[in-house]
Sequence to fold (152 residues):
Amino acid sequence: MTRSVPYQPLIFRILHGVTGILVIGAIISGFLVYNTFDKRFGYIPIPKINPIQDIHGTFGVFFLILLPFFAVYSFHAGKKRLLQADSIQKLTQFGKPIWWVSVQRLVNTKMLFAAVLAVISGRMMKEEWLPTGEFDPTFRTLNFHRSKKPAK
Fold:
């Protein structure tokens, strides 16, 4: 009997697994941050975890540390699994195996791009905004908000 070869190298499987755990943790803690501070679109009445913003930030920092390694590995050794020049054209061959491969490549590329955007936007956040109820800091920095000075 021949030995089977894993689909992915060990380092990629480890990076992928740890990244997946961090993403799931960030999604759950991100919802809990929303449920604690924002509540604009509703909330679930669950007990509050006081340091939830710090926990969410910790997931983000570990993800920030791991993402460059994962991205570099994906762009080099995993480049066959990312979007190719002909992947969009092959999406027209619905139901065939190449269609599934093209969809997987598109999804992999979008997920890598989304991870980069999530890290960038997370690093731009200031920890003071949520506890003080500042949900529109972009407008505040661009001076699009109304002045709170009393009218004379």
